[in-house]
Specification:
Layout lengths: L4 H12 L3 E2 L8 H11 L5 H12 L1 H8 L3 E6 L7 H7 L5 E6 L2 H14 L8 E2 L17 E6 L9 H15 L4 E7 L4 H7 L6 H16 L9 E8 L4 E8 L3 E5 L2 E5 L4 E8 L3 H10 L2 E8 L5 E8 L1
Parallel strand pairs: 1-11, 2-3, 2-5, 3-4, 5-6
Antiparallel strand pairs: 6-13, 7-8, 8-11, 9-10, 12-13
The structure holds S-adenosylmethionine.
The site of S-adenosylmethionine has 19 residues, from helix 2.
Length: 310
């Protein structure tokens, strides 16, 4: 497989700063997507259960807000698990457009959705949504575009990048469109930390799999056995910091560039920001959105928010 030189330079740049980091988008090769699906089924990972419950409990109101003949554009669709609640209840959907970077997984999920919902025009798009990409034109003219962004994937972006991405969604929603987004909330730090340090070690495997992905597709030579998973909640910044910690002094290469790591030094692989309702509303406002409706689960662990143009 030919190495994508723009992505290679992005990886090398990320590892060349004072804090070594790799973008979380590199978690998602085929195995990474399967491991993420396993994470969503873990007892400690409260996010998926809470978000699904919110969707199911409020689906009638959500459908009324979305209206008829919308085009549903999902960013980072993965296995489209929560989307099925929408697809089962929305009437006369113009199209469902799942967008994801993980190609094989997206196509498999798209094929399954087509089987389950043969009346829906399903148009998967393989793209990195942080870069410009083209959306297809549905055969049926939609009344409006609804951008769907579940899973609190927004939390993987730092403040400015999150606003930038919300602006892209604002543009894709268009004049009469809206954003339906899953947003994880600040809560007991112990509960948050448990979600990213599961007892079965699936999250650790997911984190380490990023190195295998880079070895296979980007000419890296990480010794995966020399790294350990770490996830800690930084309460001051309201985010989980997920890292790979070097178990020894070591060197590794990505392409032709060599790097050194001290014993105990970290590579940052992901942030997972947790929000207050006011904090998210302020961020959405910066991108031109007003939060029109918030739904939460009974324990107020998670929120689904409906955002319209300001
Ligand atoms: C945290 S998972 C959420 C999956 C699913 N939406 C859910 O709620 O269970 C993030 C998803 O976004 C995709 N993804 C991550 N970064 C991406 C990027 N830059 N462009 C496109 N897809 C991306 C991943 O492949 C993965 O399917």
């Amino acid at each position: 497989m030919a190495v994508n030189s723009a992505e290679l330079s992005q990886i090398v740049d990320g590892l060349s700063g004072d804090v070594k980091k790799i973008s979380p988008k590199y978690f998602y090769d085929e195995r990474g997507s399967q491991l993420f699906d396993e994470i969503t089924r873990l007892p400690e990972y409260y996010l998926t259960g809470a978000e699904l419950a919110i969707m199911r409990d409020n689906i009638d109101e959500i459908c009324t807000l979305v209206g008829k003949r919308a085009s549903l554009i999902e960013f980072g669709s993965g296995s489209s698990l929560k989307t099925r609640v929408l697809l089962e209840h929305l009437s006369e959907l113009a199209a469902y457009v799942p967008v994801d970077i993980s190609k094989q997984h997206l196509y498999a999920a798209g094929a399954q959705i087509r089987d389950e919902f043969p009346h829906i025009d399903v148009q998967p798009v393989v793209a990195d949504f942080t870069q410009p990409f083209q959306l297809p034109s549905p055969a049926v003219m939609p009344v409006r575009n609804i951008v769907y962004f579940p899973g609190s994937t927004i939390g993987n972006f730092e403040y400015d990048a999150a606003i930038e991405l919300l602006r892209v969604m604002h543009h894709e929603a268009g004049e009469d469109g809206a954003l339906l987004i899953g947003v994880d909330l600040q809560k007991d730090p112990a509960l948050i930390e448990r979600a990213y340090n599961d007892s079965a070690g699936v999250t650790a495997e997911f984190n380490l799999n990023m190195l295998r992905h880079l070895n296979r597709d980007y000419g890296a030579n990480f010794d995966v056995t020399e790294f350990a998973h770490s996830a800690n909640y930084d309460q001051d910044n309201g985010r989980v910091v997920i890292e790979l910690i070097s178990k020894a002094k070591q060197t590794f290469a990505v392409g032709n560039t060599e790097f050194e790591l001290a014993d105990g030094e970290a590579i940052l692989t992901e942030y997972s920001h947790k929000y207050t309702l006011d904090g998210f509303a302020a961020m959405a406002g910066q991108a031109g959105f007003r939060v029109a409706k918030v739904w939460m689960d009974a324990e107020r662990l998670f929120s689904v928010q409906y955002c319209v143009r300001l």
